[in-house]
Amino acid sequence: MKFIKLYELKIYTAEDVLCGDEPFYKALFKEARRLGLGGGTLIRANEGYGTQIRGQNGRAMPIFFSGSYNLPLIIEIVDTKEHLAKLYPFLEANENKHFLAVIVPMTALYTKYMEVNRAKLKRGALPLMDEPDC
Fold first, then answer.
1. Quick check: helix, strand or coil at residue 3?
2. What pTM did the predictor assign?
3. pLDDT tens digits, 42-74
4. Three-state DSSP class for 34?
């Protein structure tokens, strides 16, 4: 078996977050496709909450992540660190939007599916690992 080192860009946001006249998640996926990133998934959650904020009266008050009753979303995009970095300018240009982005390193099993799609994306060879880093 062969393994490779990949990274996951995980973004927590909500349905009501807009980027221009379209939902933020659609604009993000459009940009990821344009940049030729490996693949992404959108997960709609049934429920979520955000951090505690202080209201005008100084008391902490709970809010939903988006500040409304729209459903929370998790966007996951997996690729190499270098390819995910191509998406950073888009995220920086939209840093005033309501989202939290995290980068998660992962070890992936190198499969025939990955080999075929690497060729479709016109990517060079991926650095293989002998065994997982776990």
1. strand
2. 0.78
3. 999 887 776 544 345 444 344 445 454 578 899
4. helix
